[in-house]
Recover the amino acids of this structure.
DNA sequence: CGACCTTTTGAACTCCATCAAGCCTCGTGG
DNA sequence: CCACGAGGCTTGATGGAGTTCAAAAGGTCG
């Protein structure tokens, strides 16, 4: 499901440097880090790790978009969130030493750098700052998870779609004239999964957002004239 | 909102010992721990800490039931989970050094032991085991949060109510003849809040569960003839 | 161009929210 | 001891939103 790529630069020079957890690695260990790391490419649809599989280390995304999803015991798939370059995957399972709770799949062509579990353990033992950084990421993610629970409970589907769209536009969008334009990295079905609704319902929501002139879209191309208006729509109460 | 209680025994002898995070405290520190700890009582409805308030330390529940809830910016309250004796509250805010993300309210008369933030920081610095234990709790809670997101998305309200009821019966229930009987610690309104539905809808769900003979109830007293049947109902797909 | 997949649209149905009224329980006070 | 009132809980009727099934319309690629 993946193929090796050549390593071209040190982790410490990673283009997503601000976000790597490896900042706290002591200088004398950086070489080891670079040597131990394995860089891989994944094609669209490839799986990085699977729910219930044992943790095999830490994965830093350097390219592409990943989905993190859970399959419920009754067979339904739920997409929890998207992950982007600079994000580190597998942290919770790594810290707890438990199997993965989620499945990570590449939604586009992607590249990741992986530090095997045993090596990462050694590195974190040498560098408490790295451990703290990893913990902090998990805790921040926890806040996000709770926020998402709250929004699921108290916002309308329309509001949550607006939120999702504004997030996607913010990340993938480019200004074209007065508008912000983006090509969505995910299919309608996937978006519906993120919102916990059916693709048909999503399609109808889209029609209404178009009718209300909050967005324009054709196929996977979306645009908005005002990101602020989208965001405002996203915080309204269910009855708004 | 709370009143002091006398300290009667060492944290290390806590009746919820298995669950205290203080196991890893080195022997020489235990006296300090016991001295620094403050034991308080709370009445039903009292607030232990409030969302957005700064973290003031770690709170171990020794008696009573607490609710952890979040108020969305649009004013809606969402009840995330219940906490019981043996649970430690405020851990995430303590670890991150950020304000509380949730509000903790006593649903019954309650007692908590509190270690002030500054003291807890010292103790965890001396005992990496305690730090790890606290982290582990947060990570486990994260798994729970994600599970709850998934269930919210892919289970019917009926299934989720069955899950909630089976959890409550498991925790509060006592065998009476062939049945398991419990007095619920929370009101209908609170339960509805936990499921993200209206009290009227909850009431109708109850009627149906009664009609289906999965439970019997009058007022706050619930009972079931088969916890297994309840659990089975709780894992069914939405269309089940 | 045609085959295939994704997306949209339509119609019927289910489920939940809402508003409104009635009921039950418990505590108060006569 | 009973009448009363308040709050929590239940029940009914209605409307809106989402699901489901079915079919049509776009897109993409050989």
């Amino acid at each position: 499901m993946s193929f090796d790529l050549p390593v071209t630069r040190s982790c410490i020079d990673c283009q997503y440097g601000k976000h790597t957890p490896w900042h706290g690695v002591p200088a004398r260990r950086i070489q080891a880090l670079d040597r131990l790391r394995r860089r891989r490419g994944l094609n669209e649809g490839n799986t990085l790790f699977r729910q219930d599989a044992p943790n095999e280390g830490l994965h830093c995304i350097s390219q592409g978009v990943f989905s993190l999803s859970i399959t419920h015991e009754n067979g339904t798939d739920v997409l929890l969130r998207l992950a982007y370059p600079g994000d580190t995957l597998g942290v919770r399972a790594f810290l707890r030493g438990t199997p993965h709770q989620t499945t990570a799949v590449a939604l586009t062509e992607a590249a990741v750098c992986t530090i095997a579990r045993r090596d990462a353990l050694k590195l974190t033992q040498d560098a408490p700052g790295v451990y703290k950084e990893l913990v902090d990421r998990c805790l921040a993610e926890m806040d996000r998870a709770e926020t998402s629970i709250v929004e699921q409970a108290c916002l309308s589907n329309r509001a949550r779609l607006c939120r999702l769209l504004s997030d996607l536009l913010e990340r993938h969008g480019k200004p074209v004239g007065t508008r912000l334009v983006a090509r969505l990295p995910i299919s309608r079905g996937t978006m519906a999964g993120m919102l916990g609704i059916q693709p048909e319902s999503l399609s109808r929501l889209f029609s209404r957002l178009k009718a209300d002139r909050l967005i324009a879209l054709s196929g996977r191309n979306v645009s908005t004239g005002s990101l602020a208006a989208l965001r405002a729509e996203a915080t309204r109460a269910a009855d708004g």
Notes: Chain B has a mean pLDDT of 89. Residues 187-189, 199-200, 202-204, 206-207, 219, 238-239 of chain B lie near DNA strand D (CB under 10 Å from a C1'). Chain B touches chain A at residues 70, 72-76, 78, 80, 92, 95-96, 101-102, 135-136, 138-143, 145-155, 196, 235-238, 240 (CB under 8 Å).
